[in-house]
Task: inverse folding
């Protein structure tokens, strides 16, 4: 297998088990023990050739950069972000909710994630929570393309327990790649009905960066954790979602209704129904064109909030700066989130799989 960063990945911390009384997802189906290596996606020649919406039966966005990942940019605090408040002099967490942070798509880049979290003071040198009552949200897509997706999940689960003990919290949303990995584990080669004909979760997972090492290390508690993730949440006027799509509206007219519907689909565990959910959550670019602001307002009107914060679509693609004649396929440096759609949308995927930046930022952003 061709790794996209150095192969010496630190051992993942032992994750906590599910909390007592937590709902348990349906049992995982048996998966064939051997998977072929995932194919390397290629950078398209022109941005105009990119599809308006992602097609799960075709390769998704490319992975570029040298195997050593020396060109990866780690997020550092920028002038455009609100500085984190200082801790109380006595070291005790301040009363009330702490500062709010969000993390873009990680895609298995464990080392980059730890460096980015440490740069914001959220974890210490040992990888333990060090941010007191801060609030941290991951926007989904923990696995695939990078070398240690299970390590990323283990770290998020560990930080969730540690943050809660410190008076804060660390939470995560459902990304389309969580749905893809769940489907590949549960259904394997089971045929599903796709808009492009018959497909399978296993084929789509391999085509879109599925890593055999992740599948080999995937355990029941990882599956149960992923299946319980919410799809939509609102914090401090920020509507948090994974995908830049209005497809969430098809699953409910409130945040609670959407999350309940997604959980119900995963509990029933019907291959075609889960595939349809995955397919809709892979749609992208709904907010970037002339009608983008209107699309964002549809979500805000339904679910509340004043801005949508999303991952899923790398910022270089939203800007049309990848694969054009001007860039000639060179990596595009992303320094901070991309605010667009009349200021109503914030894109958080800095393109770590494309030699870009893993964004960890504090909200609200300054104007």
Result:
């Amino acid at each position: 297998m061709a790794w996209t960063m150095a192969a010496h990945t630190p051992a993942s911390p032992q994750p906590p088990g599910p909390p007592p009384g937590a709902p348990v997802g349906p049992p995982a189906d048996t998966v064939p023990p051997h998977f072929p290596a995932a194919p390397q996606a290629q950078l398209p020649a022109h941005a105009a050739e990119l599809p308006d919406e992602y097609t799960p039966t075709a390769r998704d966005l490319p992975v570029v950069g040298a195997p050593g990942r020396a060109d990866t940019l780690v997020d550092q605090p920028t002038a455009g972000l609100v500085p984190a408040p200082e801790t109380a002099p006595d070291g005790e967490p301040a009363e009330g909710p702490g500062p709010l942070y969000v993390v873009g798509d990680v895609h298995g880049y464990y080392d980059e994630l730890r460096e980015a979290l440490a740069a914001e003071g959220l974890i210490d040198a040992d990888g333990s929570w060090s941010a007191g009552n801060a609030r941290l949200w991951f926007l989904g897509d923990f696995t695939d393309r990078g070398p240690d997706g299970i390590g990323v999940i283990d770290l998020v689960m560990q930080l969730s327990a540690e943050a809660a003990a410190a008076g804060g919290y660390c939470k995560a949303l459902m990304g389309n790649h969580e749905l893809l990995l769940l489907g590949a584990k549960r259904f394997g080669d089971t045929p599903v009905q796709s808009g492009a004909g018959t497909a399978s979760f296993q084929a789509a997972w391999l085509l879109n960066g599925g890593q055999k090492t992740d599948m080999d290390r995937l355990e029941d508690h990882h599956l149960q954790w992923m299946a319980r993730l919410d799809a939509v949440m609102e914090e401090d006027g920020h509507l948090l979602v994974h995908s830049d799509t209005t497809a969430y509206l098809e699953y409910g007219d409130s945040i609670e209704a959407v999350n309940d519907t997604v959980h119900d689909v995963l509990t029933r565990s019907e291959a075609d129904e889960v595939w349809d959910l995955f397919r809709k959550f892979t749609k992208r670019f709904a907010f970037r064109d002339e009608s983008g602001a209107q699309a964002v307002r549809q979500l805000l009107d339904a679910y509340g909030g004043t801005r949508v914060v999303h991952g899923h679509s790398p910022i270089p693609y939203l800007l049309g700066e990848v694969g054009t004649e001007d860039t000639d396929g060179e990596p595009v440096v992303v320094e901070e989130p991309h605010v667009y759609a009349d200021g109503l949308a914030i894109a958080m995927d800095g393109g770590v799989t494309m030699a870009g930046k893993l964004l960890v930022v504090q909200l609200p952003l300054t104007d």
